[in-house]
Amino acid sequence: MTRPGRKDSGGDRPLGPLETAVMNALWEAPGPLTVRQMVDAMADRDLAYTTVMTVLDNLHRKGWAERDLARRAYRYRPTASREEHVGQLMAEALSSAADQHAALARFVDAMTPAEAAALRELLDQRGRDSS
User: Fold this and answer.
1) Cα angle at 28 between 27 and 30, to 5 degrees?
2) Helix (H, G, I), strand (E, B) or coil at 92
């Protein structure tokens, strides 16, 4: 996926398992995290400080995370919300379909009634907003 502000082409590749775990921790955090705070947040994985630092630096370089210097340590935060990320993935998946109508039909068929109702509400709202 192409990330805004990306500094290398790595943003076009899917995240690896550790990068995904780190992004999940960033998305779940109430605010920016230092490397030490990230290590503590992921204590169940028993990761080395340098491993987490490297992953966060890579995510920053790829455009997935922003960082600010706070005293002597960087504080990292996601560049986009998890919902923005998922929405972009969905849009990219749809745009890659040869038959977008069929792809949408399969997507809708896989929805729960509650998901379909939420989609219907969003589409109705979009119709009202564009009038």
Assistant:
1) 100
2) helix
| Contact criterion met (CB below 8 Å) for 31 and 39 | no
User: pLDDT tens string for the chain (131 positions)?
Assistant: 444 444 444 456 678 999 999 999 999 999 999 999 999 999 999 999 999 999 999 999 999 999 999 889 999 999 999 999 889 889 989 999 999 999 999 999 999 999 999 999 999 998 888 76
Instruction: Enter the tokens of residue 119.
Output: 């989609």
Q: Is pTM, for the whole model, over 0.85?
A: no
- CA distance to 1, 12, 127, 130, per residue, from 29 (Å): 23, 25, 35, 35
The domains of the chain are located at 9-78, 97-129
Q: Selecting from 3.20.20.70, 3.40.50.150, 1.10.10.10, 3.40.190.150, what CATH number does the domain 9-78 have?
A: 1.10.10.10
Place of tokens 């792809």: 103
As a whole number of angstroms, the distance between CA 93 and CA 130 comes to 25
Structure tokens at 4: 């805004």
